[in-house]
Structures are given as structure tokens and as C-alpha cells.
Amino acid sequence: LMNYFLETENVSIDISLPSESTPSPQLNISVFIKDQIGDVPISSAYLNNYLNVSIENDGYSDIVGMISNSDGISINTIFSLPAPSDKPYIIKVNLTYGGNIYMKISKILYYNSSQIPQFTSTFSTNGIERNGFDSLDIEATLDGTSYNVVSYLSILPFSYYNKQSTINKTFVLSNSGPNPFDYSNSFIPTSVDPSGVATFYILPYNPINNYYNPYSPRLVSGIVNNPPEFVEESSSVLIIDSSKTIFFDETHTEDSVNVYSVSQGNQLDFEVNLTDSVSYEDQDSSEMRVSVNLFIVSISEDNTIVPINPRTYILSELVYEPSSNTHNGRFTVPYTMSFSSRTGTKEISTASQYDTATQDGYLAILWITAFDSEGESEDFIIAFLIQSSLELDLVLVLVVVVAIVVVIGVIVGILLFLRKKKLSRISAPSEGYYEHYYGDDSFQEPYDQTHVNVHYCPYCGYQLTSLRNFCPSCGKSLKFQE
Q1: pLDDT digit string (tens) for 98-126?
Q2: How does residue 201 score in pLDDT terms, banded at 50, 70 and 90?
Q3: Is the pLDDT confidence value at 392 over 50?
Q4: Residue 422 falls within a domain, yes or no?
Q5: Are 366 and 331 in contact (CB under 8 A)?
Q6: What is d(CA 111, CA 469) in angstroms, rounded to the nearest whole number?
């Protein structure tokens, strides 16, 4: 069905040329022909009789004599183009096969290399600030003075976090200076232009001979984005459990970092104040981002902090607060972190031990990173010694266990006290058991406790309010032989 709607060529023709353009008149042409229906190359005898190849240009036309010594291929390696031209030569292939005519066209440019603009040198300034004064200078020295030179500029943001888009600009380079072979232009970027990588492509054109030089070198320059800065005097972290506030400017000296103690599970409240290092970029920190990341680190012999990358990062993103123009948020010190090992992922306690005398052990750092609106970043670190602490669930379990132990102890104490009291009662004199009462054992007569002695069963300790022959509790006989 698809063959009905999409008719396929019964013969395929492929023209092979050495290149799309050449400065040499010598032309090598190869033509490959195949019968698509039979999936076989067309015989050389047929090609020598029915394959026609011609070359045309403005006012020029010629037949190319092709020779086929093998089935499916016909070549010519001795044909010469007549003269250079600013327009390409058109090669036409014509084959009559099975009552149908099949055609294929290709092109090649034979140019005069002396008429194509040639570069002597190129130059562009680098490290340009967007302060409205620095200029991005583009210069090209060529071999002629009558060229039309255009420069195409693209500025690509260098960071994923840059919210500005790529821009493209076109400049015309002029040679109005003292050296007519020097073509130049200047571009002054402002804060509305993105920072990043500026790429130039200079395209010179010879209008007299109608030739471009498409192989000009690319120039690369950089447009600077200044990083944000931490206002350390007004940026702080509050350790909630100890109610201790640490300002950023207190965490370090010129050549060292102070170490603070926190416990696992501690909550840290951040208030970070940022500013841009120049006034013409971010006017406030509303479009900046701040994140807090925890790393376990080792200390090298030269006191360099070496972070150990975990398998899963512990990250907290701070939120911009418009009323104070600060970024606020909370970070909770985890009990464990995931690290990769040869046997798989392992959960390792974040509790760290460090010997300041031998500089042996591990510490933890909070790596605070600030990004401005165009992706430039600045880092700040605070060093901590994380102390081990029981998790909340374990504390509750211990409290419950201790409470149960106390209750059991009280109960055991009471039982021992009662047992001791019963034993003392059993050892009391048992007089009065020789006066017997005959009647219902379940009946106890009322008596006056102030005048009647209290008696107990010597077997089970049951209190008897009157004399009995049998104990109402254990049923044993209370008759004793004299």
C-alpha cells in the first residue's frame, strides 16, 4: 500500500565529487548507478551506451565523457573546468533505463583563491565588565582594503543558574583608521546584556569578485559577572538547643577557621545577608539563591580542608525574606549520612572526633553557597565538631524502660514487706484453739476487738475473728493434740 502512495525510483544515481569547492580546474567525477528493483548494479556495457553527463555554467556547457569498466560505476578523471567563477558549475547526469529517464544534479565551485579575502590577524578584548565603560573590541587585519566585513556575536550565559537568555548581535567592521587593512568595531555591554562567553564569527566579503571567506577563525571573549558577597557582620546562625548565635565574621580569622560544637539532631537557624560586589548588577538579593550543605571533612597535613563526598547530599535551601532582604531557613544536623563503599552504600554516623594536638580525625563543615541571578557564586564555610547524641526515639524508649523498672521495684518492695509481716504474724502464740466452736464454718460471729484476741491460721495466715475447728480459707483442721 505504501508503495502505491510513495512511488520509489527504480534506479538510484549517486554523484561523487572530491569536494564542494576547489581552487583547481582538475575534476574527478564518479557516478554510481544501481537497479533498485533487481538490487543489482547496472552493467558497464549499458552505462557506456546510455549514460550521459554534462557540465554547465553561465554561457558554458560541455559533455563529459564517462567510462565504465565495472558494473554500476562510471568515471572521468581527466576533465578540466574552463575558468574560475563566482557561481558553481552544475553537473547533470542523465540515464535512460527501462523506458524511463532518470536524472541527478550536483554542483561544484571552482574559485580563484587570490580573490577570496584572507585574514592576516584577528583580535578581541577579554574580561569585559558591564559597567558602561569597558568595550569589547573586535579587530581583523585582511589582505585588501575594499572588503565588506561583518561580525556576528553570540553571548552565551556560562552558568545553568543564569536567568538571562543567549543574545545574538551583528556588527559591521570598518577600516576608517590609519591602517586601511585593519577592520574593527567596539561593543559596550551593559547590565541588560548577559554575562558569559562571547563568541565572534567574522565574515569578510569581496564585492568586486563576489567571494566570501567562510572559514574565518572564531574569537572567544569573556564578559564578567561579579560574584555576590556575604555581609558577614549581619549574617548569623543560631544553634537552637544552646541558644547560641554565631555571626559569620566570628567564624574565622585571616589564616584559620574556628570550630564550634553541635550535637546530632541540633537545629540551626540561618539569616544570611547578601550583596552584589558591584552596584550595576544585582540591586538586591531577591533573585539570589542560598543553600546550606553538610560535608564530613578530613584535615590534610598542611591544614587544608578536604571534603568527603557523600552518596546522598544533605541540603537545605534558604528562603528570601523581603522585609529584611535576607535569606532565612533552618538546617537540622543529621544523625547519619550515606557513603559509598566497596560493599555498597553504608550509613555512617555524623559524630566526629578530632584531636587538635595531632590534627587527626574528622570534622564537619556547613558549606554555604550563594548564587546571584546570573549564576556567579560565592562560598562560605563554618566548621563544626558534631557530638554524638541519642535519637529522640531511643530517649523515649529509655525513659519508658526506666519507668517500668521503677514500678517493678516498688511492687517487689511492697510484696516483700507484706510477706515479712505475714511471717511475723504466723510466729505469734496460738492460744485459744482448744475451745472449739461447732456450727457453720462460713459464719463468723461479731466481736468486740477491744476485748477479744485476734487469731490467725498457722498455715495460711488467715485472720480468725472467732475460734474455729477448721480454717475458712485453707480448710485445714485447727484441732491440736495436747
Answers
A1: 889 999 999 999 999 999 999 999 999 99
A2: very high
A3: no
A4: no
A5: yes
A6: 143
* Residue 400, C-alpha cell as written in the block: 519508658
Distance set, CA 434 to CA 154, 305, 430 (Å): 124, 96, 10
Nearest by Cα to 407 from 415, 359, 379, 19: 415
pLDDT digits (tens, 9 = 90+) for 21-32: 999 999 999 999
* Total domains present in the chain: 5
- Write the DSSP assignment of 355-411 as a string of letters: ETTTTEEEEEEEEEEEE-TTS-EEEEEEEEEEEP---HHHHHHHHHHHHHHHHHHHH
Q: Which three cell numbers stand for residue 57?
A: 555554467
Listed in sequence order, the DSSP H helices in 338-391 are: none
- Pair 334, 344 in one domain: yes
Q: Where in the sequence is the domain holding 309, given as residue range(s)?
A: 230-389
Degrees, nearest 5: CA angle 441-442-445: 90
> pLDDT, tens digit, for every residue of 204-246?
999 999 999 988 888 999 999 999 999 999 999 999 888 899 9
Which set of grid coordinates corresponds to residue 104?
A: 541527478
The answer as to whether 423 is a domain residue is: no
Residue 371 to residue 282: CA distance in whole angstroms:
11
Dist. CA 213–CA 206, nearest whole Å: 9
**pLDDT tens per residue across span 412-451:** 667 666 666 555 554 444 444 434 444 444 444 444 444 4
- State how beta strands 136-142 and 267-276 pair: unpaired
Measured CA to CA, the distance from residue 467 to residue 460 in angstroms comes to: 16
What values do phi and psi take at 385, rounded to 5?
-105, 110
pTM for this model (two decimals): 0.62
Encode burial over 22-31: b for 16+ CB neighbours within 10 A, e otherwise: beeeebebeb
Residue 372 belongs to some domain of the structure? yes
Residue 422 pLDDT:
55
Alpha carbon of residue 81 to chain centroid: 58
Q: What angle do CA 36, 41, 47 make, to 5 degrees?
A: 110
For residue 108, the cross-strand partners are 89
Buried b (16+ CB within 10 A) or exposed e, 248-270: beebeeeeeeebbebbbbbebeb
* Grid cell in block for residue 197: 562567553
